[in-house]
Amino acid sequence: MGFSRIEVVTSMNRLSDLKTALSKLGVSGMTVVQAIGCGVQKGTFEYEAEQNPEMELLPKQMIIIVVEDEMIDKVVDTIKKELYTGHIGDGKIFITPLSNIIRVRTGEEGADALK
After folding, report:
1. Are 54 and 35 in contact (CB under 8 A)?
2. Closest Cα to residue 99, out of 70, 72, 66, 77?
3. Which residues, including other chains, have CB under 8 Å from residue 70's CB and lie 6 or more apart?
4. CATH number of residue 26's parent domain
5. Hey, CA dihedral for 12, 18, 23, 28, is it positive or negative?
6. What does the alpha-carbon distance between residue 65 and residue 41 come to, in Å, rounded to a whole number?
7. What does DSSP assign to residue 8?
8. pLDDT at residue 62 above 90?
9. Residue ranges making up the domain that contains 80
């Protein structure tokens, strides 16, 4: 059984709905970090006529989730559905394989460390 880390970088206003939807899927935990950053548009807002010549860092949040590989497609589909607005700033999803998970308190590893 493999595990993956899913990192989502998105705007600040969609966390509540995403958290509810992921809970319904059985995702048992997540970490949310407030950040600043920009993507391809260099922080240009959709209504601005031209791209910024210099990057403008905007408030973002990074959501980190660890799931069993069998859940990746369902989790990613849910994330895309909940975050989609069709506008700049909907976000990016990054998926990275993990070799192991260890719960420090008990020493449990793998799937046991996630439960």
Report:
1. no
2. 66
3. 1
4. 3.30.70.120
5. negative
6. 26
7. E
8. yes
9. 3-45+53-114
How many distinct structural domains can be found in the chain? 1
As a whole number of Å, the CA-based R_g of the chain is 16
Q: How far apart are CA 108 and CA 60, in angstroms?
A: 33
3-state secondary structure of 94: strand
Q: Which two tokens stand for residue 96?
A: 């990275």
| Single pTM value for the model | 0.85
> Which pLDDT tens digit goes with each residue over 12-55?
888 889 999 999 999 989 999 999 887 776 666 655 556 667 77
Q: DSSP per residue over 26-77, as a string? A: T----EEEEEEE--TTTT--TT-SS--SS---EEEEEEEEEEEGGGHHHHHH
